[in-house]
């Protein structure tokens, strides 16, 4: 503290100057303040250390450490960055105060206070973050003022950064804040190590429990497999004594587990001992025995054909502990093979007999073939004769087609002559009659006569009355009037019918001409038939 001096003070003889007494008093007060603050720091460190004993969650431990450090420093804002092994960025994992909205922020080496601490692995103290040249260019951090960051590191590696900050321009961190924050950083490392140890212990216990459960399930599964197997199974020690036989073994060979447990099972026939010993030697050299066929005795003396598969199993230390032998009773299969062999011989005899019969039949077939050849030769001669007759018939058909064509042309010529005669000899007189004074009935009869003549001489009527369309006479009349452009009302008056009857006939005409549900004009369609003629 710097004070201005006005002039020398007068003091009684033998008394200390007043300024010296004031300085000593000020120093004493500062010493007391520092001791009190140091005591508060030590008390907080002690309480925090005790708190670590009962907490196991890493995030919770770090929150307690950060809160106490912030409270003793007289600020409400702080953060802890953590660095996971192998990561290229630190993440803000614990926050309070101003940094609550910054949770999850990531920084690289050299970025901001946290990145500088990571880069230098030394404490970083910034009096005014807003004016600091290495600040992070983020408007959300503009309110920060004094900031201090301490590295979290041990002799092995760098773990992260613990930091405190102030948004009050009057608040400045002091050197003792950095010193005491370093002690809290040491507590944070202890918390991290404790949490890691606790996590590792929990993981190991979980893995052990899972392993034990897996072993129990595996044992139950294998025991269930052995028990439910339809094939006999024996578990041997390396000296050949049986330790387990499954129910299928008891059912097949008649030996119970109590009879053979801890003993050697005497069920190998003497004549099969040499091949059995060779198989045992191969198994002891590490080779698996698969589908080895031999014979075994039952408890009541019966000899069974069996198929054996065997393999060595080891203990936890990897040493050979015994072998598992699976036997399959193939007596029925062997019996079936014998029966099949007999049946094959019988079939061979039958084939020889059948071959002799086939040779005889073949001779007969050759004779039949010769006879068939003679018949085919006669048929070919007959075929030539038929072809000649067919050619003659084709010539006759051609002549008939020419005659029919000439007949059709004569019919058309006759129709044209009739039409010409009607127009020259009848139409003029009908026209004169229509112009004369006639009664209504006479006029109607003349119209009908003219209409009927038109129907008789019209090629259109011939077309509609053909077998293809099969229109009735009334439908032909209606169709002809529609073609002439008459309305339904006019057609009804000419034919002395109702309008609904005309509509009925029009519907049937469209159906027979296959025009249902089609947007095709009936008159236009009928005119096309007239044009074709």
Short description, anyone?
It contains 14 helices and eleven strands. By secondary structure, the chain is an alpha+beta fold. Among the domains are: 20-201, Beta-Lactamase (2-Layer Sandwich); 230-329, Beta-Lactamase, CATH 3.30.450; 458-532, Orthogonal Bundle (Arc Repressor Mutant, subunit A).
Topology:
Elements: H1 18-54, H2 58-73, E1 77-82, E2 90-96, E3 106-107, H3 112-120, E4 124-126, E5 147-153, E6 158-165, H4 175-228, E7 233-237, E8 242-245, H5 247-253, H6 257-260, H7 273-284, E9 289-297, E10 303-314, E11 320-329, H8 331-435, H9 440-457, H10 459-464, H11 473-483, H12 488-495, H13 499-512, H14 522-532
Antiparallel strand pairs: 1-2, 1-6, 2-3, 4-5, 5-6, 7-8, 7-11, 9-10, 10-11
Features:
Arc Repressor Mutant, subunit A; Beta-Lactamase; 14 helices; six-stranded antiparallel sheet; alpha+beta; 533 residues; disordered N terminus
